[in-house]
């Protein structure tokens, strides 16, 4: 039974991963309904967060849900929101057993969904592939418990840690396969974030491309004074794909009015040492509902997040070229005088993307 439970939960987790970046502020949950060893229903949290995975899987299963087992990556909700509780839907469908990877840390749900199921005669098993589920849902838990989203920092650098030549040329240090991997990472996050310097220098679109018709992530720029061109790609497409701007409290009214007129959403944030405070930025983004943010630099924003201990995962793409000391460094100053004070991460994966090598590092490899 344990092996079967793990196999079906792995399937449910794979379903949940398909919804990453699409259903914030809700978590992307996967659900599989199994009857007599056969899968009769599958569901994943819909774009925008509703409907939840369980009612979709139950609808597919129909009458076959009676006496079946439901594998869910997160505890079924037990409260009335914009939709009825998922645990009630499971009970009414006659599901005999619910297998869940994790309990929900949301105080409206935590443990109550499991308790209601048990009180209505449904067998409940928890903790199946819990570590894998914890990583997949870490952004949702961070938002609930700390008020901020999960942060993935991407660095695409030469072998000697440079992101551009001394003249600023950076396209392209990494190859096509690595760039496609970056678009896949954008697609699995709620938002893509850059600093004002990168927005000015690169004039990026920050959209997911060459992956078919997808729901585009929110595009976030962190800039104290929002001194970016109003004819930039971001400014001119703000009404088509969301642009959120995190700025300082001293923003000029005419700048605010210009960006809001273009369709951007503005978030005033606190300052720290003359720069927009990264804690304030992430709290604002978490309050707005984001659970997963993909940061693509530049060096100063990346450094500020690292110094503040707000980077949960590093995705580092290393290219087989060297640019020398005159090249632009991938990270701004960190103020590290002793090795003991340097930000440290644990290596969790190494892959080859075309001609480049990707290293994945996490603050906590168990998540």
UniProtKB/TrEMBL annotation:
Family annotation (Pfam families): dCMP_cyt_deam_1, RibD_C
Database matches in InterPro entries: APOBEC/CMP_deaminase_Zn-bd (IPR016192), CMP_dCMP_dom (IPR002125), Cytidine_deaminase-like (IPR016193), DHFR-like_dom_sf (IPR024072), Eubact_RibD (IPR004794), RibD_C (IPR011549), RibDG_C (IPR002734), Riboflavin_Biosynth_HTPR (IPR050765)
Active site: 54
Keywords from the named record: Hydrolase, Metal-binding, Multifunctional enzyme, NADP, Oxidoreductase, Riboflavin biosynthesis, Zinc
Domain CMP/dCMP-type deaminase positions: 3-125
Comment on bound cofactor: Binds 1 zinc ion.
Binding site for Zn(2+): 52, 77, 86
Pathway: Cofactor biosynthesis; riboflavin biosynthesis; 5-amino-6-(D-ribitylamino)uracil from GTP: step 2/4; Cofactor biosynthesis; riboflavin biosynthesis; 5-amino-6-(D-ribitylamino)uracil from GTP: step 3/4
Reaction(s) catalysed (UniProt annotation): 2,5-diamino-6-hydroxy-4-(5-phosphoribosylamino)-pyrimidine + H2O + H(+) = 5-amino-6-(5-phospho-D-ribosylamino)uracil + NH4(+); 5-amino-6-(5-phospho-D-ribitylamino)uracil + NADP(+) = 5-amino-6-(5-phospho-D-ribosylamino)uracil + NADPH + H(+)
Residues annotated as binding NADP(+): 156, 172, 198, 202, 298-304
A Gene Ontology BP annotation from the UniProt entry: riboflavin biosynthetic process
Enzyme Commission code(s) on record: 3.5.4.26, 1.1.1.193
PANTHER family (UniProt xref): 2,5-DIAMINO-6-RIBOSYLAMINO-4(3H)-PYRIMIDINONE 5'-PHOSPHATE REDUCTASE, DIHYDROFOLATE REDUCTASE FAMILY PROTEIN (AFU_ORTHOLOGUE AFUA_8G06820)
Function according to Swiss-Prot or TrEMBL: Converts 2,5-diamino-6-(ribosylamino)-4(3h)-pyrimidinone 5'-phosphate into 5-amino-6-(ribosylamino)-2,4(1h,3h)-pyrimidinedione 5'-phosphate.
Protein name in UniProt: Riboflavin biosynthesis protein RibD
Organism: Pelagimonas phthalicica
Gene that encodes the chain: ribD
């Amino acid at each position: 039974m344990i092996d079967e439970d793990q196999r079906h939960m792995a399937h449910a987790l794979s379903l949940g991963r398909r919804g990453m970046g699409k259903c914030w502020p809700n978590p992307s949950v996967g659900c599989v309904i199994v009857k007599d060893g056969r899968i009769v229903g599958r569901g994943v949290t819909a774009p925008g967060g509703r409907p939840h995975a369980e009612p979709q899987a139950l609808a597919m299963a129909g009458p076959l849900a009676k006496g079946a087992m439901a594998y869910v990556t997160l505890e079924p909700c037990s409260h009335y929101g914009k939709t009825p509780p998922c645990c009630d839907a499971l009970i009414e469908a006659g599901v005999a057993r619910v297998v869940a990877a994790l309990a929900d840390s949301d105080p409206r749900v935590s443990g109550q969904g499991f308790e209601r199921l048990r009180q209505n005669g449904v067998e409940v098993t928890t903790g199946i592939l819990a570590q894998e589920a914890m990583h997949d849902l870490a952004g949702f838990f961070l938002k609930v418990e700390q008020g901020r989203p999960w942060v993935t920092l991407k660095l695409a650098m030469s072998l000697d840690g440079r992101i551009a030549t001394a003249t600023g040329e950076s396209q392209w240090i990494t190859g096509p396969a690595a760039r496609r991997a970056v678009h896949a990472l954008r697609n699995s996050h709620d938002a893509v974030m850059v600093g004002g310097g990168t927005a000015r220098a690169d004039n990026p679109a920050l959209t997911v491309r060459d992956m078919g018709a997808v729901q585009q992530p929110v595009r976030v720029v962190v800039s104290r004074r929002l001194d970016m061109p109003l004819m930039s790609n971001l400014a001119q497409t703000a009404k088509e794909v969301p642009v959120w701007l995190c700025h300082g409290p001293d923003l000029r009214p005419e700048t605010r009015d210009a960006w809001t007129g273009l369709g951007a959403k503005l978030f005033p944030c606190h300052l720290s040492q003359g720069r927009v405070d990264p804690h304030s930025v992430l709290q604002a983004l978490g309050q707005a509902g984001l659970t997963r943010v993909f940061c693509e630099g530049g060096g100063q924003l990346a450094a500020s997040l690292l110094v503040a201990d707000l980077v949960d995962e590093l995705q580092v793409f290393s290219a087989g070229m060297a640019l020398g000391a005159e090249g632009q460094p991938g990270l701004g100053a960190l103020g590290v005088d002793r090795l003991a004070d340097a930000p440290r991460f644990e290596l969790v994966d190494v892959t080859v993307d075309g001609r480049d090598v990707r290293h994945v590092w996490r603050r906590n490899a168990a998540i």
